[in-house]
């Protein structure tokens, strides 16, 4: 999430097809361990995620660290000026598991532009590839606040949560220092570390990064459905509904459909933080 106070900007369908400058990302076992700690992994139950002597196994959502630039640099790439923007949805598909070290080249382009009348929603599709081919595909949606009304199509409707009792529930703890750890993986937005900055933009206090909350949900799915094996999770996506406060409980509710696809939502208390969640887990 990124917020800045400013007036609206003019957007049009002509932006679809805009390519962002390509980038690359290189990582080591230390990076994936730090990421795992940032999204709540703790030994001994998840030692395989945080100990290089037994891995480390890599959470699939680490790919979104390599992809973060496609969200972060969108303002400059589309000349959005100082219009407030919010990361509103994210999906990820893995062609193969993420290794404990490696490097990828990432290319991205604007693939859709939607109009809610009040706001604009910008979709960016990106691909990460290494010497052996494609590693991941990611689709990010960013909402440009106040930039709607340009006559574009409406965005797709959100998929409602199942109305039955969940098949599984995973409860986790968001520690007070969680955002401070996660930001070391690359997202240094002050809204997640500086209470005064958060209050300037209308928040009561600092809060967890949306992609960090998604990492918590990925761990929940892996632990409940994937037999604690990160390699089982091949795709995941959700909408970012509400920010998550620090020093509190986080609960992910999971529904199976019997074909390896699951639905989920992640809540803090009774407030849905991640909505319209879907995922695929191999062999589950």
UniProtKB/TrEMBL annotation:
One Pfam family it belongs to: MaoC_dehydratas
Identification of the protein by name: MaoC-like domain-containing protein
UniProt-listed SUPFAM superfamilies: Thioesterase/thiol ester dehydrase-isomerase
One GO molecular-function entry: enoyl-CoA hydratase activity
Organism: Mycolicibacter nonchromogenicus (Mycobacterium nonchromogenicum)
Family: Belongs to the enoyl-CoA hydratase/isomerase family.
Domain spans labelled MaoC-like: 160-269
Segments traversing the membrane: none
Residue span(s) of domain Peroxisomal multifunctional enzyme type 2-like N-terminal: 27-137
Lineage, opening ranks: Bacteria, Bacillati, Actinomycetota, Actinomycetes, Mycobacteriales
């Amino acid at each position: 999430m990124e917020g800045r106070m400013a007036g609206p900007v003019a957007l049009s369908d002509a932006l679809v097809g805009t390519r962002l400058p390509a980038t690359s990302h290189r990582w080591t076992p230390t990076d994936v361990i730090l990421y795992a700690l940032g999204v709540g992994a703790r030994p001994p139950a998840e030692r395989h995620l945080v100990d290089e002597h037994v891995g480390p196994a890599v959470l699939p959502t680490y790919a979104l660290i390599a992809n973060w630039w496609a969200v972060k640099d969108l303002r400059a790439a589309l000349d959005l000026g100082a219009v407030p923007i919010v990361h509103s949805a994210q999906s990820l598909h893995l062609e193969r598991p993420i290794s404990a070290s490696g490097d990828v080249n990432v290319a991205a382009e604007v693939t859709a532009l939607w109009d809610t009348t009040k706001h604009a929603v910008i979709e960016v599709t990106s691909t990460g590839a290494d010497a052996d081919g494609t590693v991941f595909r990611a689709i990010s949606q960013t909402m440009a606040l106040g930039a709607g009304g340009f006559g574009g199509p409406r965005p797709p409707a959100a998929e409602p949560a199942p109305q039955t009792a969940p098949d599984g529930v995973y409860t986790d703890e968001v520690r007070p220092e969680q955002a401070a750890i996660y930001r070391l993986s690359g997202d240094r937005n002050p809204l997640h570390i500086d209470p005064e900055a958060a209050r300037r933009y209308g928040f009561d206090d600092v809060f967890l990064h949306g992609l960090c909350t998604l990492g918590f949900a990925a761990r929940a799915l892996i632990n409940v459905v994937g037999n604690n094996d990160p390699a089982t999770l091949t795709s995941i996506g959700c909408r970012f509904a509400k920010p998550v406060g620090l020093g509190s409980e986080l609960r992910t509710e999971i529904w199976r459909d019997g074909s390896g696809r699951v639905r989920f939502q992640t809540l803090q208390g009774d407030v849905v933080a991640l909505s319209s969640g879907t995922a695929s887990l191999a062999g589950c």
